[in-house]
Give the backbone structure.
Amino acid sequence: MGKKINPMGIAVLVFAVILITLTAIRLTGIGSEFPNPVGKALDRVLSPVERTIWYIGDGIKDNFRAIFSFRTVKAENEELRKQVEQLKGDNLQLKQHVLAALRYQELDKNVFQSPTLEKFPKIGATVINRNPTVWYQTVTVNKGSKDGVKVNDPVIANLGLVGKVVSVSPTTADVLLILDGEGQVGALVRDNKGKAIFGILKGTYKKDSRLNVSGSLEMNFRQEDEVNPGDLVFTSGFGGVFPKDIPIGVVTGVRVDSTGLMKAATIEPIVNFDSLEEVYLVDMRGVNQ
Amino acid sequence: MKRLFLMLIIFLFCLTLPGTLFHYWSWGGIKPDLVMLWVIYIALHHRPVQGIAYGFTLGLIEDLYFGRYLGLNAISLAVVALLIGFLQQRWYRENIPLTMVLVFIVSILGQTLIMLFAATSGLNWFYSDSFNIIFGISLYNALLIPLTYPLIHRSFTGGFLYQKPKFEHQ
């Protein structure tokens, strides 16, 4: 004898499942903390596999490219040498700007020196995985809660701000890049006279194109604010997540928005996110004390 | 038991590969959704209710692995399995081109669902690239069929992944 099906019961069940799921999705967004032993266990099990695949992949990519396109690689090498010379000059100029604007003592060592940043310990970490889907701009690094990493810890590279930690397992941490529209950064623009204009910086990854790996950043200003291409953008320290004065990028363009009331500046990040391999996680304990 | 273990191992590879191996093989930033493809394969070779249960469970594990938006993939993959359960009885699953079409259509619906659930749950969302992403992922999933489906299908119908029926037919 077949079982009787109660359509009303099924409808109620389906509705309840959808409602619970939507609530769960909303409550567990980026930055929220909830007990996740399964996710942490998976991270612990899969991170060595991910690391191995990365190493193998990088090796294959580099070696095969060199073997099969020797001429191209040679030409590319020459071109890159020229670019390195050019960039050395540009880099020096940029260093001078940064030093003048923010009294940095050195920018040529592994990590730039910032008076604010020096107060906090930093943990070096290696990128072992990149965003597994196209929906978010995240990377996974090989340091976790065992090393003292916590959610919301700022992440920097040798040149500037990378993002913040959004989830942590004992051995790994997920970092939301500043390119992702989900995250916002309190920032300030310094013009060539050193005057600061404050604002909120957002990634354009969600807004413009999720398919553009490099992405870019955007900031809004009042009409009367004087923001020009070439101005440097730094963290403002407001909001309590990021320390003050970490370089973020350079203003590459300014346009009036569709309402005609505000100006929007496009900012090119200083950090090259596509070739990001090593980062520093900043331990912000005691920042608000 | 051995069968479930093998299914779990394949699922773990599906979780890991898009962020690692397919970073090198991404196509204009688009990577395949291997977990969705694996759920489609499972649903094609199981009864609808079993397929939905697998879809929901694997989706939930995927959400836990990502550590955010818990339930987003769980419910989307359950619906994908439901669709497959409905279509598989009307579809000739031995035929690879037809399976590619099936995977393409279902992936489009699955990715659209993920997008809609994300949008209705308050995720910061912009629609300008949605078509390219949904179409690209679905096409990538469909293009992986000739490489993966024959082996998986053979395994489900007589190999390591074969599920012995609980009762013999009279």
The two ends of chain B are 26 Å apart (CA to CA). The mean pLDDT of chain B is 86. Residues 96-120 of chain B form the longest helix (25 residues). Residues 30-158 of chain B form one domain.
